[in-house]
Amino acid sequence: MNVLRLPFAARTWREGLHLLLNLPLGIAGFVVAVTGISVSAGLLVTFVGLPLMAVVLLLLRFFGRFERGRARLLLGAEVPEPEPLRLREGRSGPLAWMGAMLRSNVSWRSTAYALLRLPWGVLTFSAVTALWAAGWGALTLPLWSWTIPRYTDDPGVGINTDGEGGGWIWDAPWELALVAVVGLLLLILGAWVVRGLAVVDRVLVGGLLGPSSAATRMWQLESDRSVVVDASAADLRRIERDLHDGAQARLVALAMDLGLAKEKLTEDPETAARMVDEAHGEVKLALQELRDLARGIHPAILTDRGLGPALSSVASRCTVPVAVDVELAHRPAQAIEGIAYFTASELLQNVSKHSGARHANVDVWRAGDRLMLQITDDGHGGADATAGSGLAGLAERLAAVDGLLAITSPAGGPTTVTAALPWRDRSATAAPAR
After folding, report:
1. Confidence at residue 127, expressed as pLDDT on a 0 to 100 scale
2. DSSP states of 61-86
3. Tens of pLDDT, residues 203-225
4. In this model, does residue 305 exceed pLDDT 60?
5. Which of 73, 111, 153, 271 has the most Cβ atoms closer than 10 angstroms to its Cβ?
6. Is the Cβ–Cβ distance between 347 and 384 less than 8 Å?
C-alpha cells in the first residue's frame, strides 16, 4: 500500500532532513540578524553604524540565497531570485551601494526570514525528532530488545518496571509485534506531519526570499515597456521607409515632370499636355499610397465608425471569405480599439498567406472586464507562437497592455486564435459609437 511506503519514501527523508536542519541554521541566522542589527543600530550615532548594518544585511541576503538553494535541493521548491540590488540612477560607489542595501526590500525580508527561522526551526526539529525517534524505536524494538536484559539490569522494555507490582514488561512475541505496529503508525503519522510542515516551509521561503509581487509587477512593466518602445520604433521606421520609398519618391518624380511640362508649355503644348496628364495619374497613385499609409497608422473608418465597420473593411481585402460578427453595446477606449483592430488585421493577413483556408470568422464581444477577439479558419492548422513567427510578437504586444493570446491549431486544422484585451471605457470626449 502507498500509505505503508510513506515513511520510507525518498521525499519524506529529504523533507525531514530539511526540517531537522532548520534548527542549527535558524540559530546561525538568528544570531547574525539579532547581533548584527542590534550592534549596528547602537552604533548609528557613529560613522560605522550604517556601513556595519549594510554589511549585516548583505550577509543576510547571502543567507537567503543559501536557503533558496537548500529549499530547491531538499524541498523541490523552485523559488525565483528576488530583484537585484538597484543603485539610484547616476550614482555609484560605496555610499550608493550602502544606501541601496539599506533601502532594499529584499534585505529586510531576508532579515525577517532569519528571525522567523529560529522559532520555526525549534518546532520542526522537535516534531520530526520526537516522531521519528519514537516511531523507529518502536518499529525496530523486536530487533534490539534482547540487548536490554543482556547488557543492563532491566529485564526488558516496559512500563512502571520500578514499582512494587513489577510493571509491564514487553518481552512476549505478540507484545513486541504490537509495539512494532504502533511504531509503524507513528512513522506514517510522522510522514504526513513532515509533508505538512514542508508545505509551510515552502510558503515561508517563497514569501520572504522570493521576488515580491510589487517587484514582479515592476519587472513585467519594464519588459512590456521595452516591447512597446521596440514596436513603436519599428512602426516609425516602417512609416519612414514607406514615405521615402513610396509617396516621397513619387512626389519628387511628379515635381520634376511638372517642371519639364512647364518648360515645354510654350514650345510644345501637346507634349506638355501629355506630361501633365501623366503627372495627374502619378498624383492619383501618390494619394492612394498616402491613404494606404494612413490606414496603416490609424484608419479613419475605425475612428469614425468603430470596430465593426473597420473589421468588415479589413475582411473585404482578405483573400479568404470572412464573416465578421461584432457584438458590442459600447465602444472601448481608443487605444484598446486600435490594438484589437491591428491584431485582427495581422491575424487575417496570416490567414490569407499561410492557412490555406476556404473560410474564416471574426468574432468580437465583451466578457466582463475583457474585450474578446476570436478568429477561426478551416485551414491546415499548425500555427505556433513559439516558433519565432509573427504570432510571438503579437503575443508580446498584447501582453504589454495586460492582454493574452491563446492559440489552438492542431495539425489539419481548424485554427482558433483568441485575444483577450482589458476593457477600458471610452472617455466622454471620444466619438460616440455608431
Report:
1. 94
2. HHHHHHHHHHIIIII---PPP-PPP-
3. 999 888 887 666 555 555 555 55
4. yes
5. 111
6. no
Full-model pTM: 0.55
> Cell digits for 211?
521576488
Residue 327 parent element (H or E) = strand 322-327
Which among 20, 34, 49 is positioned nearest to 131, based on CA atoms?
20
The answer, yes or no, to whether the previous bond of 414 is cis (omega within 30 of 0) is yes
Q: Which amino acid is at 288?
A: Q
Residue 279, number of CB atoms within 10 A of its CB:
18
Question: Nearest Cα to 385, choosing from 406, 369, 357, 401?
Answer: 406
Rounded CA-CA distance 96/87 in Å is 6
Strand partners, 375: 362, 417
What pLDDT is attached to residue 77?
A: 87
In angstroms, the CA 238 to CA 394 distance is 17
Which tops the pLDDT comparison, 401 or 165? 401
Distances (CA, A) of 219 to 86, 195, 214, 387: 13, 33, 9, 25
**Pairing outcome for strands 370-377 and 415-422:** antiparallel
**Averaged over 44-72, what is the pLDDT?**
91
Residue 115 confidence (pLDDT) above 90: yes
